[in-house]
Amino acid sequence: MKKIAILNGPNLDRLGKREPEIYGSATLAELEAALRAEFAQKAALEFFQSNHEGELIDRIAKLADSKVDGIVINGGALTHTSVALRDALLGAHVPAVEVHISNIYKREEFRHTSLTAPACAAVITGLGLEGYHAAVRFLLKT
Question: Least packed by Cβ within 10 Å: which of 17, 21, 40, 49?
Answer without folding.
Answer: 21
